[in-house]
């Protein structure tokens, strides 16, 4: 049947890339044109219709099958839907952006092709399409005046909001940043608070991201926010599932869109997200759309291909290296270099990406043929993209989390990986003799002071105290440079600590640190670290003498010149439980005789 076709062009003063950021945000666009939030059911199929979606379009309740979007950043995006009920059979929508040659700005053209279910419904479909296109045009025009966009805010209990703000103040979190967060929860658009991603918000606000993350953690017991855990696909970087507790995590997760099974590594696949407490603000979390370029900003081109179909991906205009991803996990690196071919032929086989060469000139094309036997989508992604994700590893290494959420731990028996963490051990030399010399009470008091000394330095360098073992301290750091700096400060400032504590003159401190992959488990109701990295850090600490710091060679390279310690020697050490020798460097405070 002949479709109802409606085309509308809107001229914007904004540049094409600025307009793209506005137009390609399908969550805001769908809401602006009257689309409802949608409920999604996953479909097991070899085709492209992988999601069954239920919602309201143009005021009519419909169920439709959603295919992956197609787009090329800054140029166009398009999608297709097959309706299972309602007045239409199929929908095709495409947005094209083009520079205006004279005077600047850009044109945004939207085309909608809608096939009625039966001829008698053609007038109804035409009317609904015209009305929707008019709403789309108003949204497109709003790119030139962002302030005109109305804030959509769900029901807010002002009394509960003020009470939560007061409780934040009682928790000694009453600064300007706390007030700003409370104002954000109370007045920001629904799409900006469900969820709140602390690192992304900190970037937008130009504030320290760890400070904002700490504030969000404090806001949970204050009754302002709720903490949830998103399982993030390593490819599309969107949440395939959101869980209320770390205790609900399993070892593996699955992204239906990308058809990827992935380990729930705490530093890569689990993100801490915050939502307004429902007593403060009841925000719906169902999306307005499940696809679109703005949801995956690291993907600058995508094409869906049914089995046997052909399609094109356009390379970026800037030289560099990008990643070709095909649903199911196939990847290949693409070199975008001047002088390379303008077009490259690529075949998507069942278990491989087949090509003669993957170098293409800037702005060139990859011509794809899908011979995999099933529908797949292919993407070109920015290599090395870093998402604004406050991972579970970030959170787990923060003292505030361990203090506030001691019971929020993994389920018993579950061991999850982190790709890298720096582990530091410190120990006191001569504590046994001290107990015999001054008695248990005095010696124990000094040990407590020593632990407090080390803990304060760990916190100052963005680490977390994992546990104490007698008079020894174990700490974890996300950034290895912080571990090296903390160890150096412990050694460099020990003489100042001993000068202020008379009993400390008879004891010394030794410190060691090592970085590498690790395993996190629940032990004694808190998160603890296990594995060869922990073993290596403990062994390295034993290599240190009184008032010495021993670091693995890679950590030693990160130590700043003004760290207060100086290199004594580098050496290879064979230690118990580790097959290969450890390459380490010994440091002492500056000015101490070697």
Describe the protein in words:
The protein is of the alpha+beta class and 594 residues long. The chain has four domains: 145 residues, START domain (Alpha-D-Glucose-1,6-Bisphosphate, Chain A, domain 4, 2-Layer Sandwich); 119 residues, no CATH class; 84 residues, no CATH class; 181 residues, 2-Layer Sandwich (Alpha-Beta Plaits). It has 16 helices and 30 strands. Strands 1, 2, 3, 4, 5, 6, 7, 8, 14, 16, 17, 20 and 22 form a 13-stranded mixed β-sheet that branches. Strands 23, 24, 25, 26, 27, 28, 29 and 30 form an eight-stranded mixed β-sheet that branches. A four-stranded mixed β-sheet has the order 15-21-18-19, with no helix packed on it. The longest helix is centred in the last third of the chain and has 21 residues. It is elongated and about 100 Å long.
- The name of the CATH architecture of the largest domain is 2-Layer Sandwich
Shape: elongated
> How many domain modules?
4
- Per DSSP E runs of 2 or more residues, the count of β-strands stands at 30
C-alpha-based Rg, rounded: 29 Å
Report the uncertain regions: none
CATH superfamily of the largest domain: Nucleotide cyclase, GGDEF domain
- In the CATH scheme, the class of the largest domain would be Alpha Beta
The whole-number mean of residue pLDDT values reads 90
Structural class determined from secondary elements: alpha+beta
Biggest β-sheet strands, sense, barrel:
13 strands, mixed
**Helical region count?**
16
According to CATH, the fold-level topology of the largest domain is Alpha-Beta Plaits
Oligomer: single chain
Strand content range: 35-45%
Q: What is the distance, rounded to the nearest whole angstrom, between the alpha carbons of the first and last residues?
A: 89 Å
| Percent helix range | 25-40%
